[in-house]
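Reagents: none. Just compute today. Acetyl-CoA acetyltransferase.
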Amino acid sequence: MATIIYSKKYSDCEGNQVTPEGLKEIFREAIAINKILSSNKKRIAYFFIDPLLNSFEAANDFYFNIMGCHSIDKIHTYKSGASPVQALYDAKELINENLYDAIFIFGYDPLLTNKQLYGKDVVKQAMDIFKSKSIIECYNLAAHKMCEELGISKEYFLELSDQLYRNYRKTYAQKIDREVSYDRGRFLDDLKGDLFRITDCANPNVDFAGGVILVNDRTANLLNIPSGRVKVSGAKYRMVKGIPEGIGQLVGQKGNLFAHLKSSFLEAQRQAKIDVLKEFKRGNLYLELYTCYPPIPLAFLLTTNMVESPWELPEFLSNHEITITGGMNFARAPWNNPALNALIEMCAAMKKGDIKYGLIHGNGGIGEVQGVAILERI
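Predicted 3D structure written out:
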């Protein structure tokens, strides 16, 4: 059984606030766990979620210079918004097959500091992963395709986007315990995003570092981890070809939107041996959907049949929170690491509350990678 025995994060919205020594202090418990595991000859694999900039050697630098590793037998890096779910899937498989005793999954992206250091044009250029179209254009095309397949108007789609924003805002206000102003910002017509406002995008102005440690049962007992553990009950991701010219195929057709998302969800649900919708309606499951650009969370709700038709979405969004963080505009989004941030938040919420399950959704590229992980409190 793959159990998460450690989860911690650091985030900063000012920039230039953390040093290598500061990171060592933040993750001192993880460093201590690493030393114990190494001294007991445990088989450890190290996974790393790459930053936007300076990704070359970023994983090695973090694990050798921050985590204090002396030698590493297995290391792997991930490069998409679905990366944390992909890493959970791989970790679960390695532990359940008794190939490794412990897996570290960490990410470090000083994105805001790098923006201040190199300038926003360098960051923007790094985010342009296609030469022919920007990410905004690609998701805008996906939104238009969804409208066409679902038979809804541009006006209704914009109304749904407003409902999503209200949903995130409500959650975020509760989280920070203060009122959050309603400010949707400008439309993005000038960026070829006529179906989006600026607050529909992720807000990348943040420095983030965080991670989780997964272990098998023997290792958890060695570390004398108390009760209230969280296990990975289900995890699956699927990938299709992601190019701007293939967005129509990626989105799919009415009744089969984002087929790779649906299959990932169904497989994760099968592994976890639960009915996600039933547990959610019972108030026994947290959701954290990937919220960068409205087509993605809307597609999740529809393709998983949590909502049966687009006309039922407004009522659902008015009555059910679909994130625990407040989403990627309010809670910020460090490029490949938002789902890792959500995973860490989910672990904390599940350990201190009575809710048994948590679902985390990952989305990569222009929607071509879709992953779902289901956690369970034990």
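The first strand starts at residue 3 and ends at 12.
Action item: order primers for follow-up constructs.
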